Amino acid sequence: MKQRGKIRGLILVCGVALAALCVTLPGLAQVSSIGEKQMGPVNDKPSLLSKVTIDQHLNQQLPLNLPFVDEAGKAVTLGSYFGKKPAILALVYYNCPMLCSEEMQGVTSALRMVHLTPGRDFNVIVVSIDPTEGPALAESKKEFYLKQYGKPETADGWHFLTGPQSSIDALTQAVGFGYVKIKGPDGKLDQFAHASAIQIVTPEGKIAQYYMGVEYSPKDMLLGLMEASSNKIGSPVQNILTYCYHYDPTTNTHSLIVARIVQIAGAITVLLLGGFMLLGFKKDIGSSKKV
């Protein structure tokens, strides 16, 4: 009986710990993604992050005459990819050390489960917000994500663009994509503070839907593309932003937070606690049978 009581007590403690963890993890994720707002007024951080936004400009016509350069070094306009098919639009920068790669992996992962074909049914248009990046880098990124997607025959449906600041400004303003350039200690451009989102665009070049974050539902993406193909405009979504920027007040430097570490650590803890609770229940049942 004493042993059973100890086991029940231990299980209760584990249950409380697990509940506390479930409450704490969302808070940790929030601190990881919007750490600027949690740390108070250190230097210019609040005003900086206030410019990092995604304003949902549904039914906004994109400026299709904007000049860009594709991954092959060919001069194109944004309108080159519209007229007949909808598109998935992603605004990133190719040298982004964290969030942009997560976003693009989220796109390719979701598209693997969408029964539509890039190039035939829709286009994927990725545009760099960094005017210093060029076609060679864009080409390497296209090769990488096309390999991730696993269907090299769809290469004609993937477009990785670079362009001048004027084109970038016009496109980001039309999309409602607010970002801030960050300079390193040497005064040179170091990174961009930005949020993560992709847009579904109609064949006419109008924004039909926004998807926030770095992981996307294949079902929602399929529905968004099908509706956009008929020039149907969707509804606003909850504007929960995932930032690709963090300020370290202890060193007065900008750094990135790898939120995945928090998620993995939390998942391991949950698994361990769950396994321990299961083991406790088995012991408790075994003791009951003996009695």
Describe this structure in words.
The chain is an alpha+beta fold. The chain folds into two domains: 76 residues; 191 residues, Glutaredoxin, CATH 3.40.30.10. The chain is built from eight helices and eleven strands. The strands form four sheets. The protein has a five-stranded mixed beta sheet, sandwiched between helices. Strand 3, helix 4 and strand 4 form a beta-alpha-beta unit. Helix 1 runs antiparallel to helix 8. The N and C termini lie close together (9 Å).
Considering the chains and any ligands shown, give keywords for the structure:
291 residues, 8 helices, 16% strand, Glutaredoxin, 2 domains, alpha+beta
How are the SSEs ordered, and which strands pair?
Elements: H1 2-33, H2 35-38, H3 45-49, E1 67-69, E2 75-77, E3 87-92, H4 99-111, E4 123-128, H5 135-149, E5 158-161, H6 165-175, E6 180-183, E7 189-193, E8 197-201, E9 207-212, H7 218-229, E10 246-248, E11 253-255, H8 259-290
Parallel strand pairs: 3-4, 4-5
Antiparallel strand pairs: 1-2, 3-8, 6-7, 8-9, 10-11
Helix pairs in contact: 1-8, 4-5
